Each structure stands twice: as structure tokens, then as C-alpha cells.
UniProtKB/TrEMBL annotation:
One MF term in the entry's GO annotations: shikimate 3-dehydrogenase (NADP+) activity
Key words, A-Z: Amino-acid biosynthesis, Aromatic amino acid biosynthesis, NADP, Oxidoreductase
EC number: 1.1.1.25
Organism: Roseivivax isoporae LMG 25204
Gene Ontology CC annotations of this record: cytosol
Signal peptide region: none
Protein name from the UniProt record: shikimate dehydrogenase (NADP(+))
Gene Ontology annotations of biological process type: aromatic amino acid family biosynthetic process; chorismate biosynthetic process; shikimate metabolic process
This protein's pathway: Metabolic intermediate biosynthesis; chorismate biosynthesis; chorismate from D-erythrose 4-phosphate and phosphoenolpyruvate: step 4/7
Source species taxonomy: Bacteria, Pseudomonadati, Pseudomonadota, Alphaproteobacteria, Rhodobacterales
Catalytic activity, reaction form: shikimate + NADP(+) = 3-dehydroshikimate + NADPH + H(+)
UniProt keyword Oxidoreductase present: yes
Length: 262
């Protein structure tokens, strides 16, 4: 797993649980890689014959997508990648499962967002994938906000081209009834007390979701729970996407000693 930092990551533990349950001979290793070293690290994967690939986390999801040889539709539509598969000839193929994991976690709690309004804070790699998954889940209207306004505008334009029937905007309509508010930014990581969106602006019953993996409940999520909101945590999203990650890395079934993801 490649990230900067990696002390907060939960995927290696979730992967280990999957490998033990499935009796698979595989391990995921967290590797701390600075942004300037990402190209060389991905290049090294090409010759690493006992490595199935790598899971990509913050802040590398956008940069990793540009360094690969082929991409799934999810990567091409979002411009971001969170899992890289090393093919037998050393080529690298990228996939994006953050959206699948987020939607799977919501579904496991019985939440249905068809025709309802959703707010997404963060238009980076994970945010792009979650936005696409929400549109594919049938949300009525999706509002995307980012501290860099141009990044939100660019994502909205890309999603509008990909899903022209969808309603995506940067400004909440006057009758916006938020059923889901998702933080797809690093705000809250490591116990940061800041809130990515004011909870007092959300209606009662609005689902409050975070993708930050550590702490398991960010201060925003803890405060939302105290206000009576249904919540979804970062580790729940990680668990939700593990089936998609493992099936992409190991499409032919069991991992072998020659197939161990970083």
C-alpha cells in the first residue's frame, strides 16, 4: 500500500483478515512514499515479479493514474486510481474501488439514496469515485464542494459528460434536502478537530459519512452521532471495498507466493 503518510491506513489489516478467511497466501505491506518518489516506486513494481500490485492511498490517487499503461472505466471517468495490478509482462493496470466501497457500506446499513439529495465535500481522487458511485446509485441531485473551487468545477464537468442525465452542481438549490453528507477530504485525520461541513446546516436524519480511516470516528462523526445522525465511518468504507480490491488483484482466484500486493 503506497501513501504519504501510512500510519493511519486500515487496508492492510482488512486485507490480512480477508487472506486468513479465504486461506490465501498473500500480505499487504504499507509503504511510506513521498509524492516525488511515486513514479520511481511504480516503475519498480514493473519488475517486482512476486508482487500482484499495490493499493494507492492519499495523496497519490490522481498522480498514480497518470503513470499506468491501462485503466478500467472507473479510472478513466474519475481520473483517479486506488489499486494497481501488475500484469505478467510488467505492464500496470489501474482500477478505482473507493466508490464501490462507499456504496457497499451504505447498502449494508440499508440506506437507499435513489432520488434523494447528497452533498460531497472533496473533489480529489476518492471524492471523484464516490461522486460517480452516488450518481450510479441514482441520487437525485449531487452537490460537490472543494476548498479549491476549480477542482470541483472540473469534476462536475467530467461527471456531467459521463452521466449527462444526472444533476450535479457546486451550489445547493433552494429546495435542497440533504439526505447524505460525505467528507472525502483529509479533514479529521489524526484527530484533527475541524469539521469539513457545519453539522447545524444538515437536516435531522441526514446520513453523515467520512472516509478518513484514522481515527475510526473523526470528531465530525462523533459530533454527528451525538446529534442523532446516522453515520458511516472510514473503516466501514475500507471493509466495503475489500472484495472489489481482491477480485481485481487476483481475478483467477487464490493468491500465490508470487502474488503479494504492496
Amino acid at each position: 500500500m503506497l501513501g504519504d503518510p501510512v500510519v493511519q491506513v486500515k487496508s492492510p489489516a482488512a486485507f490480512a483478515a480477508w487472506a486468513a478467511e479465504a486461506d490465501r497466501d498473500a500480505v499487504m505491506i504499507p509503504v511510506h512514499v513521498a509524492p516525488q518518489d511515486l513514479p520511481a516506486t511504480l516503475q519498480a513494481l514493473r519488475g517486482w515479479q512476486n508482487c500482484a500490485g499495490a493499493v494507492i492511498t492519499y495523496p497519490h490517487k490522481l498522480a498514480a493514474a497518470d503513470a499506468l499503461d491501462s485503466w478500467t472505466e472507473a479510472v478513466m471517468l474519475t481520473g483517479a486510481c486506488n489499486v494497481v495490478k501488475r500484469l505478467s509482462d510488467g505492464r500496470l493496470e489501474g482500477h478505482m474501488t473507493d466508490g464501490q466501497g462507499f456504496a457497499s457500506a451504505l447498502a449494508s446499513k440499508g440506506h437507499v439514496l435513489t432520488g434523494r439529495d447528497a452533498l460531497l465535500v472533496g473533489a480529489g481522487g476518492a471524492g471523484s469515485a464516490i461522486a460517480l458511485a452516488l450518481l450510479d446509485a441514482g441520487v437525485g441531485r449531487l452537490v460537490i464542494r472543494d476548498r479549491t473551487a476549480a477542482r470541483a468545477v472540473e469534476l462536475i464537468a467530467r461527471l456531467t459528460r459521463a452521466r449527462p442525465e444526472s444533476a450535479v452542481t457546486a451550489t445547493p438549490p433552494g429546495d435542497f434536502a440533504c439526505a447524505l453528507a460525505c467528507n472525502a477530504t483529509p479533514v479529521g485525520m489524526g484527530g484533527d478537530p475541524a469539521h469539513p461541513w457545519p453539522l447545524e446546516d444538515l437536516p435531522p436524519g441526514c446520513i453523515v459519512a467520512d472516509i478518513v480511516p484514522e481515527p475510526a470516528e473523526t470528531p465530525w462523526i462523533t459530533a454527528a452521532r451525538a446529534r442523532g445522525h446516522p453515520i458511516q465511518t472510514g473503516p466501514e468504507m475500507v471493509a466495503g471495498q475489500m472484495p472489489a480490491i481482491t477480485s481485481f488483484l487476483f481475478p483467477n482466484g487464490a493468491a500465490t507466493a508470487q502474488e503479494c500486493p504492496a
